[in-house]
Design brief:
- With about 260 residues, the protein is mainly beta.
- The chain has 6 helices and 20 strands.
- A hairpin with a 3-residue loop joins strand 19 and strand 20.
- The protein binds magnesium ion (MG).
């Protein structure tokens, strides 16, 4: 599959559909495709929509799981007071009910006073796989999107594990679309709170590479088409307040913006 941007969207309140994003920034159109790209491939229906006539949704709602990787940039591990040289990736799960879309307003959970943003590169799996050797990971990757791995720091500290802290409703914004061709080992990952640049990292600084992460995850879990793996966040994380706007961006993919409220 060549370079493509695959989006999921709604038109006029109808059921969500998938399409291929085409055209220059600011003048994009969406060529609708049949069904689900993970199971049915890319078959155009013949219908084309203008970007301004659709509402983009999270490009995938995983049927089974979002896997997260903690402390995968040494500078972020340091700012959190954690070990920056782990022997293997630290994995956690976010339920599919935590997924939100680009532009969605997200209600901060009532149990937390300390919800943090974490801009991240996200890997979208394209094939059923298990025990994938690192060198074969490109064969099982469908593409890449942008994630915000929202984390309730207070619950993370008190609970001893991260199900609530990272799994609450809305804790996993994804978007704006899936880019099928990307060099995941050297792209810029940024996070802007309002118009202030707060996170600015490069995936070449990840402790474990995308190939190592996907291989490692597949040694524990069967990965399914549409599963999402978050690759960790660079330094500069901070808290979200009522009324904030946060944009996570990955070079070569696009921007994921959400607003936050109580
Ligand atoms: Mg994270």
């Amino acid at each position: 599959m060549g370079h493509m941007r695959i989006a999921r969207f709604v038109v006029d309140g109808q059921d969500p559909v998938y399409g291929v994003v085409e055209g220059e920034e600011g003048a994009e159109s969406l060529t609708q495709i049949v069904g689900d790209p993970f199971y049915q491939g890319i078959q155009p229906t013949g219908t084309v929509h203008r970007m301004e006539d659709v509402r983009l949704l999270a490009p995938v709602i995983p049927r089974s799981k979002v896997i997260g990787i903690g402390s995968n940039y040494a500078d972020h591990a340091q700012e959190m007071g954690k070990e920056s040289q782990r022997p293997s990736p630290l994995m956690f799960l976010k339920p599919n009910t935590s997924v939100a879309g680009p532009g969605d307003p997200i209600t901060l959970p009532s149990f937390s006073e300390e919800v943090s943003f974490e801009a991240e590169l996200a890997v979208v799996i394209g094939r059923i796989c298990k025990d994938v050797p690192p060198e074969r990971v490109p064969e099982v990757v469908f593409g890449y999107t942008v994630a915000n791995d929202l984390t309730a720091r207070d619950a993370q500290r008190t609970d001893g594990q991260w199900a609530r802290a990272k799994g609450f409703d809305g804790a996993c914004p994804l978007g704006p679309w899936i880019e099928t061709e990307l060099d995941p080992d050297d792209v810029r990952v940024t996070g802007e709170l309002g118009d202030e640049l707060r996170q600015d990292g490069q995936t070449s600084d990840m402790v474990f590479s995308v190939q190592e992460i996907v291989s490692f995850a597949s040694s524990a879990f069967t990965l399914l088409p549409g599963d999402v793996i978050l690759t960790g966040t660079p330094a500069g994380v901070g808290l979200l307040e009522e009324g904030d706007t946060f944009t996570a961006a990955v070079e070569g993919i696009g921007d994921l913006t959400n607003t936050f409220r109580r």
